[in-house]
Amino acid sequence: MISSAVLWIALEVSLLPRPATPAPTPQTYRISGVVVDAQSNQPLPSTVIFLLTGSTEPTEIMAAELTDAEGRFAFENVAPGKYTLNAQRRGYAAQAYLQHENYWTGIAVGPGLNSERIRFPLQPSASISGQVFDEGSEPVRAANVLLFEQSLENGRRTTRMRETTATDDEGHFHFGHLLPGKYIVGVSAVPWYSVATPQVEEDDHGDSARTDDNLVSETALDVVYPMTFFPNARELPSATVISLRPGDVEKADIRLQPMPAIHLRVKVPTSDPANSSNIQIMQQLGEGLELPVRTTQRSLGPGVMEVTGLPPGHLIVHADATEGGNRTTQTQNLDLSGDSEIEASKGNAEVKVSGIAKMEDGSGLPEAAVVQLRRLPGSGASFARCQPSGEFSFENETITAGPHEVSLPNPDSFIKSLKATGAKVFGLKVEIEAGKDVRLELTLARGMSSINGIALRGGRPMEAVMVLLVPQDVENFGQLIRRDQSDSDGTFTLKMVPPGRYTILAIEKGWELEWANPEVLRRYLPGGESVQVGPDGIPSIKVKVQ
Amino acid sequence: MFSRSFRSAADVGFLFAVTSTAVLCTAAFDANGANATNDIKTAFEQTTDESDHSLTGIVVNSVTGAPIRSALVQITFSRQLSTLTGSDGKFKFEGLPSGQTAVSVRKPGFFSEQEIHSLTNTQRMFSTGLDSAPAVLKLVPEGVIFGTIRGEEGEPLEGMNVRLTRNSFNSGHKRREAQATVQTDETGAFRFAELIPGIYFLSVSQGEPSAPGLRGRIIQPSAKGYATEFYPGVPVATEASPIKIVPGERKQLDMLLTAKPLYRVGGAVSGYAAGQNVGLQITDASGQPLAVGSNFNPQTGRFQIAGVSPGSYTIAAAVVGPSGSPALARKQVIVNSDVSNVQLRLAGTISIPVIMRTEFSTAAPPENGFPRRLAATVVLTSVDASSGGNHSLTRPSGTPEDMTFEINGVQPGAYSVRLEPAENAYIYSAKYGSIDLLHEDLTVDSDTLVQTIEVILRDDSAQLSGALTLDGRKAAGAVLLVPENAPRLMKLMPTDSWGAFEFSVLAPGNYKVLGMDRLDDVEYSDPEFLRKYLPKAQEISLSARQAVAIQVELIHVGD
Predict the structure, then answer these.
(1) Among A156-170, A207-221, B36-50, which is the least confidently predicted range?
(2) Alpha-carbon gap: A64 to the closest alpha carbon of chain B (Å)
(3) Pairing of strands B442-444, B413-421
(4) Which of A7, A495, B105, B191 is in the most buried spot, having the most CB atoms within 10 Å?
């Protein structure tokens, strides 16, 4: 398993000339095949093909060449082993052979293995472009356009923000190089004529001294554009999902409608020596999707702050407040539809999480051990570095109530057991409660192994199937799931597996499956191979493809 | 509380003197600006009973005359008032006291005339009235340059750097100023908007290698790449075609690039001590550093730079970091095959002392206890082609207490010296030893003794203002002013759109004044140009502290 970012770094290296082939060994083989359009099956000439060593963590580019007029490529004098093929062509997404998410099929080379006549299908990329207009049908410049992608990621249906761009002087935006999939486009912009923010005016004129009566805003121009999703939805779930097929060129024009800006007064405790609050406002778009809101803040006098430029909707307010000499950040979830007032000191204080990690056998901790705390569901995570003593603390991190998963991203060690005071523990999950600080106790152990195996259908090796390693208590130990995609000889490798009881599944087209859903997974578990992994791993295993 | 424009109106009292209340008149003529503004506010508050005045107007496109809808119009009385124009471009503020206000107008895609003519920074004032004539406010439409960059087979080139520079005028000097750099998109397209009218130059160069995570960028596995080209397809900046943008213009510029073989440039660096860090940089003809890999062996001094497309480059080596005295070496190389023996000899840089003396025409008392002082910025521009023609170093560093400075890090070579005096001062003389820097270049090398640049500044400047005329009517253009005894100090300045110009700080002496109908694309410092047109110039003599207003007939220059 490897992220595609790492692969890209590796590809940069190709700019420097390299010897084309490795030193010939007594017995060498050939990797050859043809690159075709995944849709039309037409051969693709002038495609750049890279040959990299290794099938799961390729680091070295051995050779690069262009396909000929019939789309053919061939690498001669290849030593036995596993390799990765990667292709790039204009109009197509850069991809490894049969790539799905961050997994692909490696090419196995050796006696009796077929590494020739490879058919490498390339997915044409698609694009979404459009124009953003204001209420008067005039283009909106410099609007922030966000592209969300709905996909199955790690077997879970997720919506995540993929990239952002800004509109040009004609209101145009363009997202290119998109793989087939489901996309949502959203626009966040501020009306250019908005006079909701007197401070901005001051900057324009270079004036700093203003009296309060100057700040009376003219309501007609004190407006905001709410976050708007294609074609004109206010909320992410009601946005139109754009389904892109390979090569699609889709249009997504969006019209913005201004709404009166909401003014939020934030009262700061009078005992607060700073008498002001650092206020950060996020707009909640969906599960795990938050976007900072551009606001203007000013003091309305002792102990009162005003935040202007807010759109209506679900907002998360993070405000500093000092009470009893203790400065904390309070989080409040608001559903605003008009001007409101809140108190900075009310709300859910962020939870402080700390703890200690110890090796089971009393030995020293692995170098640079880091504990990760991930809010469930969602993708945001907090990290804390362990001191040599094993002490760790999530400082300067926003941790709020809810279920969290504790993990230790480390190649040598794993969490053998987890205890906590101040929170309930379920396996490697903790249920954090509001206003209750948490102390964690991690017992770590060494001894993870790699599991090798082969995916078989009717007794014959099968390439490009998804291989899953599922722990027995998947509900509470979901982080122990491992994954691979079988190589051209049907073999796979599952890395970093702690001892325990597991089921190994091989599923054809598994990446189209919402396998992280326990309901879905339950259907496949009986067809898998049950294994007990000890500290020394297990011998190579055969798994039937479902 | 008041916008700046409002304050400046009070400062120039006479603009303000149309009103009925005695209080306001007194206030407006008060010499003390701060008090005046306070009193004016009081005056308005007292007259709010008679808030029956209004201000109406229309916002129009300066080129087409068409009304501009949804433009933001803002005025300032006791507070800022804002409104949007209707679909007919008209606006109306009601319930105002009588008085005058500056009116500011904004609309995306347009500039105010103030933004375009830096000379006309005086705000126009408008009177409120019971039934006053509508104010006509013009906005100047932006220019746009857009286009597509393609390869020889017509394929769009993505991720190319497209760079736009603009001729700008700064204290009478023309220079190319970077406007923006963008990258071409998937379709090879680029676009620059919000351009003020003027002369632009466009160049295209190979983009940096794709960043990790950026999908779909094609990496050329072959040994070919794109060299920096200037529109319309020339390799050097001096051959680039000027691109003239007039208000509201949308200009499409497409370029076809041919991939060229990439070469290696190698050589050796000498003149550094063991343990010193040496940095290497290669810049193209547009002055941009190339994003190519280089390696340098500190033991042997050998370096090699791979992936250089044909063209003209400057290779620079410098001792970097705190390890010893600064040293630099620069060499220009023309690449049209592998270049193997570039010798870069690091030489210590030179520090040139500068003494700035001021001669005051009157014995004035010290300001705030400090003696009065004038200052100037010294700009050394390399005239040596081998250093790439880059502007070298510049501002004085050091303490200004004794008015002695040092210009550090100067490489041996020849420089033209430009002096930019601060407001109110002019250059009376500038010498380097026996060299008169107003007439000659400055040459420094590490072998001869470094002398001192001595500058004398004076404050008894003269002033020249006026207007250009064509057939008896005022006309916009540019004014070239050439001092008779120091042609190097010639100044060029665009007039405002009504033909007015002003040189506020000039050395007393004799001048030639040329009114020209073109500005951006004339090589005004070219001796050929001067020989041809200076005889047509008007001659004028300015004495100390004299303010002269003249009318200059506009002449047609160029083809």
Answers:
(1) B36-50
(2) 7
(3) antiparallel
(4) A7
CB-based contact (8 Å) between B261 and chain A?
no
Annotate A30-63 with DSSP letters as a single string: EEEEEEEETTT--B--S-EEEEEE-SSS---EEE
Calculate how close chain A gets to B411, using CA atoms only, in Å.
34
Cα separation, B39 vs B99, in Å, equals 14
Lowest mean pLDDT among A129-143, A383-397, B31-45: B31-45
Between A313 and A174, the more confident residue is: A174
Within 10 angstroms of residue A354's Cβ, the number of other Cβ atoms is 15
pTM for the structure as a whole: 0.72
Percent of chain B's residues with pLDDT above 90: 21
Cα separation, A174 vs A246, in Å, equals 16
DSSP 8-state class, residue A545? B
Average the pLDDT over A10-36 and give the result: 59
| CA dist., res. B445 & res. B414, Å (int) | 9
3-state secondary structure at position B4: helix
Strands (E), B257-338: 260-261, 263-270, 277-283, 294-296, 302-308, 311-320, 327-335
For the ranges A168-172, A475-479, B423-427, the maximum mean pLDDT occurs at: A168-172
pLDDT tens per residue across span A320-343: 777 666 677 777 888 888 888 888
Confidence of residue B231 (pLDDT cuts 50, 70, 90): very high
**Distance between CA B118 and CA B135 in Å, rounded?**
22
pLDDT at B3: 33
Beta strand spans in A135-253 (E): 144-153, 156-166, 172-178, 181-188, 223-224, 228-229, 242-244, 249-251
Residue in chain B nearest A140 by alpha carbon:
B108
Whether the Cβ atoms of residue A501 and residue A532 lie closer than 8 Å to each other: yes
Q: Residue ranges of the alpha helices (H) in B350-505?
A: none
Q: Extract the tokens encoding B385.
A: 């082609």
C-alpha B352, offset from chain centre: 27
Alpha carbon distance A303, B471 (integer Å)? 68
Query: Are B216 and A48 an interchain contact pair (Cβ–Cβ within 8 Å)?
Result: no
CB distance A12–B191 less than 8 Å?
no
3-state secondary structure of A340: strand
pLDDT surpasses 90 at A148: yes
> Residues of B149-187 as b/e, b for ≥16 C-beta within 10 angstroms?
bbbeeeebbbbbbbbbbbbbbeebbbebeebebeebbbb
Q: Which tokens go with A396?
A: 């300067």
CA distance A225 to A316: 18
Sign of CA dihedral B540, B546, B552, B557: positive
Q: Which residues of chain A make contact with B188, given a CB cutoff of 8 A?
A: none
Reported as type and span, the H/E element at residue A288 is: none
Whole-angstrom distance, CA of residue A184 vs CA of residue A159: 9
- Across the interface, whether the CB atoms of A174 and B186 are under 8 A apart is answered yes
Provide the pLDDT confidence category of residue B193 given band limits of 50, 70 and 90: very high
Residue A515 confidence class, pLDDT cut points 50, 70, 90:
confident
> For the purposes of burial, counting CB atoms within 10 Å of the CB of A83, is it exposed (0-12), middle (13-18) or buried (19 or more)?
buried
pLDDT digits (tens, 9 = 90+) for B337-378: 888 889 888 877 777 888 888 777 766 555 554 455 667 778
- Alpha-carbon distance of A14 to A61, in angstroms, equals 7
A406 bridge partner residues: A373
* Contact residues on chain B for A141, CB-CB shorter than 8 A: 108-109, 193
C-alpha dist (Å) from residue B171 to B427, B466, B510: 13, 17, 19
ipTM greater than 0.85: no
Contact A436/A454 with Cβ under 8 angstroms?
no
